[in-house]
Structure formats: structure tokens, C-alpha cells
Known about the structure:
Oligomer: single chain
Mean pLDDT: 92
Shape: elongated
Amino acid sequence: MSITAIILAAGRSERLGEDKLKLGFDGRPLLDHILEKLDGLGFGETLLVSRDEELLGMGAHYGAAGVLNDGSFPGQSASIIAAVNASKPGNDYIFFVGDQPLLRRQSISTLLECRNRHAGKVIIPTFGGKSGNPVIFPSSYHAKLLTLSGDQGGKSLVSSQEDAVYCHFGDSLEGFDIDTRQDYEHMLIAGSRTVVVRGGGDIATGVVQKLQHTGFHPVVLESAAPTAIRRSVALSQAVYDGAVTVEDIRARLITEVSELPGCFAQGVVPVLVDEYADSVSKIGPVALVDAIIAKRNLGTHRGMAPVTIGLGPGFTAGEDVDIAVETMRGHNLGRLLYSGAPTPNTGVPGEVGGVASLRVIHSPAGGRLCAIRGIGEAVDFGATLAYVGSVPVIAPISGLLRGMIRDGLFVRKGQKIADIDPRAAERDNWRTISDKSRAVGGAVLEALLREIHTRRTSHEH
């Protein structure tokens, strides 16, 4: 006997304040996760009950037939009745909710096998000892399902233990669904591997590498015209070039959040132009890391993700971010702050090879930059590195030109535009991520893993 898969997606999400099924989870809407899991399991038909055209369209992408519930009749029963009436006669029914992204495909298959062994019984899953969804009803319940009213669910029709078979699963998170903002954040902590990184400069790239190597899915949000100095080791260059590789990390420019899953599957870091992080709610990350290194906060706040981390001056741990990371070179580089702020911006770069302020070059004028020398070249004191308009940019020390802002960009007077490394022994290191970037990246990874562990543990207890 065939079975009809029914996804109930017509709720109003009143306690959450917005349609929960459109919220992001690992780069995709919550509903999309259930639709993908059902695809290819051999159902006789799949029906999606909703009052929202966008959600119905999402279902159609996976071959689910839409059943419109316009909300005229409140309660879950109205969706159940609409779906039963629309289903093929004689089919059994399996009812899913759309906000259960941690449900495993294998668990669905196990429930279907249980149904094959216990024909005529209602199959009810339990997750960590608590009953949940999806529930399977034999076709003999057709008339009973049509008698439901208000917010009654199908399980209310099971009058005795003999009528049902319980299929037990140990992971309570599989059965977890969302009613409140707190539920949503808990689900992200429990199951999301996506981390949004604001900025794609050299420090951010060190952070991304640590995250990518440890199984997270970093997503870089950049401006339309990045101004990274150390461009040779900055994923932000993907904005200009379409794709870039830094050491073993590949990045690709994308234009839509819907492209994230494809990048994740290929092991590619997606770079999206989104200066104000408007896409975060669609992405559904477990954490957001502000790695812009602007010396001030450009809009990051703790409500953007379950875990928020700010790098360097401009952030206060416990106020605008959960954790701040010290980025000033020296003894405290990479220190995690759970209250207070990192060292304020002194305006003096950290010392490298005995040189501090002279190694960083600021624009002598405002205008378009025309580069004369390239990153990786050895330059002598007094050499002309570039022009800003007609004003020459002169090397204040000898060394390796480790970084320079992209040729052709407009710069303002006083803007940092180049970096010279005076260390003779470091002449080949302009091609690789710096020691500072790796240290900060490691600190971010520690902060993230610690925070996830702490929050998961506290929820369990």
C-alpha cells in the first residue's frame, strides 16, 4: 500500500513573531531541510499544506504538490483535513512538521520499515523518550482524521496503546522543533555549522582557515569595494576576481544565499557582497565573527547570531558582542575577553622587525591610486611605490612590499594603503597567512567551541 507524505506548514509562528519556516539554518530555509530529506524516499505523493505562496513554491521545487490553507479555519486540524481530502484514496499518511531540520533521513526510513512490519497500526516516534513527529497513520484512520477540530493533532485519535507502535530514537534533538526565538537559537547551537565572518581581509582569512579546517562552514560577507592591504592572502579578492585561493582555502564570489549549499558541498568558502549583514537571518549561522578590523563597531550586535565575536578595538564583550578578541601584537595577542574591551587603537602599528609606524604607509593625498610596484617586490628606502593622483607614494624604509591596496581604487588622504616588511628572513612569507592572523584565528576557534559546548551543556541540564 502506498503512503502520502504530508508536510504541515501553515502555522502563524505567533510566538516567534515571523514565519519560522523561512528562517535560515545552515544556509537554507528551515522548510527546505525537510523537503530535501523526503526527496527520493519513494512516497506515493508528497503534499505541502501552507498559506504562503513562497513556501508552496519551495515545495514545488522538490515535487511536492501544494495544498492551500488560507487560514480561514484556525488550528492544526484544518491543515490535516485539507491534506487528507487532497490525498490519493486508500493511501496511508505520514505527517511531518516543517521546522524539524535535525530529523535524520535514516530515521524516516526506520519509521517506514516499522510501518511495513506493523500494518494497520499508528507509528509514533519518540526522541530521547519524548513523542514527536513524523507520525504514520494507516488509511483506516481516514474518517477519524476528518473529525479533528481546532488545534487537535492526529495523535489525539489514538485511544489505546494497542492501536500504536512506538519507534524509539535516542537523540532528542531529532525531534526538536521551534516555537520561540530561544528554541531557534538552541537549534542553531545544536546543529548549525555555519559561521558568518564579516570582512575578508588578511586577519579574517586566518579566521576562515581555522574554521574551515575544523568542519565549520564559514561565509564571508564583504563590501562592494574591499580595501585589503595584504591582498595576496585575503579572501576579499574574490569580490574583484570571482574566485581566489589562499594557501589551501578556496573562495568564490556568490550573489545569492541560495548558492551556499553548493559551495559547502564543494569545500569552497562563499563570499557574498553584503556590507551591512542583511543576509544573516536567511543564512542561520551558529555564530557571527566581526573581522572587519575597522577599530570601531560597524553594526554588529548580539542579536545577530547565538554567538557573536568581535575582533579588536571597538567591541565590548558582554555588551555588543559575547566575546572580544585582543588583536594588538604582543603578550596578549589572541586573548579572549568575556567582559570589557580590547586595547584601544593607539594609531601605532605593532612592531615588526624592530620597525613600527614606518612600516605602514598612509596615502599622502586623496585620489585614484596608480601602483608602480607590486606586492612581493623588494623596495629600497625612497623608492616610488605608487601615485595618488600626481602625488608620489614614497617607501619610508627598505624591505619587502608585503601589501598594497588594489590598483585603481580611490583613496582618501591618510588612508592606510601599503605595508613594508623590513625582515630579510621573511621575504617569502607575503604569500602565506601571517602569524598574527593564525593566532587570532585560533583564538576565535577556541571561543566558538567553548561557547557552543557551554551552551549545549547548560541546555541539557
